Structure prediction request, 522 residues.
Amino acid sequence: MDNSITPITPVIVDPPGILRDPNVPQARKYNTDIPDELPHEKVFPIQIGTELFKLSGASLSSDEDDSRPQAKNSRAPSYFSRYFQCQLKTAEVNGSDPNTAIRTLYIDRDPLTFKDISLHLQGYHIAPRNASHFVRLFADAQFYSLPRLISQLYEENIFITIGNQEFQIPRDLFSEPGNSPNYFSLGFAVFFSTPKEIFPGLSREGLLRPPSIVPPCVPNRSAHTFSEILHLLRGYPLEIRSPEHRAELLRDCRYFHLKGLEQKLIPHSISYNLLRNKHEITIRLSDIRQSGISILSDTPSSTATSSPLPLTPSPLPLPQSSIGWVNYARPFTDPHPYELILEIGDSLSLLHISPPSSSNSKPTLRLEFFAETKKRMGKLLEVVATKLNLPNTQPLGLLMRNGGKSSEPPSPGRSGICEDWMVVGVEEEAAVRVDGREWDGWGWGSVEEGGTGKKRKVEEGWVGGGGREESWVVKTGQWRLRIESHLGVAGGKGKVECVLMAVKIDALRGERGRNLARGFLD
Prediction:
């Protein structure tokens, strides 16, 4: 029995990469992703500044533009391929030896930057180290016509200096709704043209060197505030230290066009009202955006459930004799609308109170707006009227004489669902304070004496006692917007009206109340 061991002959497989033997028929099959602009196995000399680099034809051909309209199976050559192709063609025409006819390509650029570019051409991934390194790589990648490197740099982090601090921002940090496009995705791309174009306004032909590029910088913004914005974009909570701090964050969110983050930062309150079986959102008039407005029909109490889920919007317009409420959802942020409680402050509204017509009736209340509040309220009510599919109520002749509806400043009266002095409803559960004291119903009730904890009974009486009209300056008011459909008016047709239902009012009753609220200067 033969116990000898037959040796196993290893099968030698040509490794992938550059095969230098021209007689091997499969010499190119392992390099199918690299075009044949230059012979892959030949070495070409390139001097950048004071340093000499020697790269193979495969490396120099590895970054070519195949998106331009060229001949079939051809790509737009890079700066290096064009130069050495001309050398090889000249040697072929003259019958010279290509190995001796190739001259060194000299380029007067930075050799340190080209070291990184040569690593890219050899197949290594390179990443910018800072803003200066980024713009140098980008400028030279454009100059050398290296589309793959340009595209890679477009996908890299954003390098920018805010104030006096440099930031490196991942692009996926702006992936949430509303945060893109923004200052960086728009302004940054325009600043560096586009991946398929050279520098804006410059021709590639005859360009000796690319223009100098200064790293992106925003010197007029706060680096500390921007670092807090990045902290929020990463999903971490941030303590708002004061209204001024919130205003700084919002100002920079608007500057950088981070609309989604802005909506999260605006002052608001979302809660569930167990007594009304509804979610509510309290937000200021200045922060309302028309895309978040909707109208929800009122749900009868018999069909209400204890579930805190939001109501489903009903088809519009509302049927006759029904009541609906204006709802709001912050754009890009809230998944569904909540019942709107609108906060109007800055002492820019006047509550006009007319005495009751009889002892069994209540006074008539209407709210008048001034300055910017009047314009904003007019725009809000125009959006509400549009959501209700209401026709334009302005006479055509009046519109044509005034140059159209858009030529007039917005006001509540032009919305078609109320007058300039909006109807106000104050129910028993509304919280009303006048001149710093609690207002009980329509007369003074039990009022606590300052600092004693005791209560004294004050005289009951209707507002505007003696049949006089009164006007209160509303410092801050919170209102629900109710949509009512009145029957039997305007020739038998229903009329839709928006009424402000008071939730909480802080008002001043005349000049004395205003003077009492004044403070002394520090």
